[in-house]
């Protein structure tokens, strides 16, 4: 008989409990270890982790390499900055804008997705590089909406039903809460039809079609969801830093997000978050080796791709799998022994 | 009874190569219909035309009396055209569960939002367990698909297609690479599909004894042309077929 999903649902897995424990420890200790500037960096890292999650949807689940996260983050960021800072002649309350930003970015991503995903594979990837460059040009040069090189300053403090995070430590928990919510929503995608369909597209487009999956529309939906998450990240960034400029939305920054996702494990939600924290924080934690950070970084990426193409989470899963296999073997050996002694 | 699949003068060229030349035949519900021919005759191309991976240059394809000639592949699958491949196509990095759920996803006809917000499909546990009796092996639901040997993976692809409740299954060389007991299991699965579930089956196969014993009608193609059409005995005594398979005397 085949054991099915339903029977196992009630058990909470050991790995889930360990992950939860580490997450709680992280949330408690980090604000105590890191102060001021380092705390600011850590907060930004949590925002970047959102972008890494968006890449996990497109690249990890769907196998579609895209650089567009950084451009979509700009859409959400400038949307929030424009509506809240009062530079358009009015200013809206921050929390509703924060919730509208992902919707607006989703709409923008939908339009670009419908156009760019007409291309496939590498051609699509290259077109997203173009998108990033075009977006950056607008962000850095078009003053009426994006403030040109000076960016937009004076974004008001975030206020959630009267609560305003007033220092980096409080912001840390607000950002962590958003990250956890988004991570759970993303994880849910993996468990439902959309995630499976994306995986089918990633592994074999022809088979996906014969399984009734509309490849184009599914990719567009993934692109839209990814864009929406980046939009939320952008709005959070604008309200956290209270200032936004085109420096944040260069191609180079876009590559960073991909490295974060690749380091942690592109098809693993927790891996993406860990990757974002490592890539974001290692330069801060390794201040001693400052001059060599770029070198270490480059060598690290090469080693990563050679030895663990599925990132840190890939290593962890393969260790768990081999342990399980060994366990299975031991059990069958014991069973055989017992049967043997009976005879 | 009306045919579940009907091809009318279907043509397909790839540059100078004629892959399908005026092909006309039909498959009835519950019928096991063979599609044979020498290597490169255009069998797989024809399957790709029916499932919508390729588009016909001219001619018509009717499914369940509905013209599907211009329909994209995923819509055809949703109408009820299941498909298996010569080498099984699964999610290589996913568990067996994920892979089978792709089949039930197709059968459930939910959209992404319905599935995301927790709409549950019909419980397929009983159905799967029954099919696995015919398939002749069991597996651990959580194992990677790569943990299964090749033959079992091929059989599982048929099971996945059946879980999506198709009206027509296109089965491409199910016996290739399988041992004799696995071939028996394939036959019992396909018999169940055709005779109990009324699924029309279009079968490409090189194992002649299987085709001759199992199929009710056979269409033989060579160089994209139908060279014989009829019952196994009619087809096997047809001189054109013998020539295509054995070659003319002066070829040897």
Instruction: Work out the helix count of chain B.
Output: 10
Q: Would you tell me which CATH topology of the largest domain in chain A applies?
A: ABC transporter involved in vitamin B12 uptake, BtuC
Number of domains of chain A: 2
* Greatest interface (CB-CB under 8 A), with counts per chain: A-B, 31 and 40 residues
In CATH, the architecture of the domain at 5-93 and 165-251 in chain B is: 3-Layer(aba) Sandwich
Helix-strand sequence of chain A:
HHHHHHHEHHHHEHHHH
Report the portion of residues of chain B in β strands. 15-25%
Outline the low-pLDDT stretches of chain B: none
State the share of residues found in helices of chain B, binned by percent. Answer: 25-40%
The CATH topology of the domain at 5-93 and 165-251 in chain B is Rossmann fold
| Strand ordering within the main sheet of chain B | 6-7-8-3-9-10
State the low-pLDDT regions of chain A, or none.
4-10
DSSP strand content of chain A? under 5%
Shape of chain B: globular
Write the layout of secondary structure elements.
The complex is a heterodimer of chains A (343) and B (252).
Chain A: H1 5-8, H2 14-33, H3 36-61, H4 69-85, H5 94-116, H6 121-141, H7 143-146, E1 152-153, H8 168-191, H9 193-203, H10 205-210, H11 215-241, E2 243-244, H12 251-264, H13 269-285, H14 293-307, H15 311-342
Antiparallel strand pairs in A: 1-2
Chain B: E1 5-14, E2 17-27, E3 32-36, H1 43-51, E4 58-63, E5 66-67, H2 73-79, E6 81-84, H3 96-108, H4 112-116, H5 125-135, H6 150-163, E7 168-172, H7 180-196, E8 200-204, H8 208-214, E9 217-222, E10 225-230, H9 232-236, H10 239-246
Parallel strand pairs in B: 3-8, 3-9, 6-7, 7-8
Antiparallel strand pairs in B: 1-2, 1-4, 4-5, 9-10
Helix pairs in contact in B: 3-6, 5-6, 6-7
Describe this structure in words.
Chain A folds into two domains: 23-309, ABC transporter involved in vitamin B12 uptake, BtuC, CATH 1.10.3470; 312-343. Chain A has 343 residues and is mainly alpha-helical. Chain A has helices at residues 5-8, 14-33, 36-61, 69-85, 94-116, 121-141, 143-146, 168-191, 193-203, 205-210, 215-241, 251-264, 269-285, 293-307, 311-342, and strands at 152-153, 243-244. In chain A, helix 3 (36-61) runs antiparallel to helix 11 (215-241). Helices cover 76% and strands 1% of the residues of chain A. A two-stranded antiparallel ribbon of chain A has the order 1-2. The mean pLDDT of chain B is 88. Chain B is of the alpha/beta class and 252 residues long. Chain B has a domain at 5-93 and 165-251: Rossmann fold (3-Layer(aba) Sandwich). In chain B, helix 6 (150-163) runs parallel beside helix 7 (180-196). Chain B has ten helices and ten strands. A six-stranded mixed β-sheet of chain B has the order 6-7-8-3-9-10, with helices on both faces. A four-stranded antiparallel β-sheet of chain B has the order 2-1-4-5, with helices on one face. Chain B has helices at 43-51, 73-79, 96-108, 112-116, 125-135, 150-163, 180-196, 208-214, 232-236, 239-246, and strands at residues 5-14, 17-27, 32-36, 58-63, 66-67, 81-84, 168-172, 200-204, 217-222, 225-230. The chains are: A mainly alpha (343), B alpha/beta (252). Chain A binds chain B through residues 1-6, 188-189, 192-194, 196-197, 199-200, 202-204, 206-215, 218, 221, 267, and chain B through 51-53, 72-75, 77-78, 81-83, 85, 89-94, 97-98, 101-103, 105-106, 110, 112, 115-116, 123, 125, 128-129, 132, 138-141, 164.
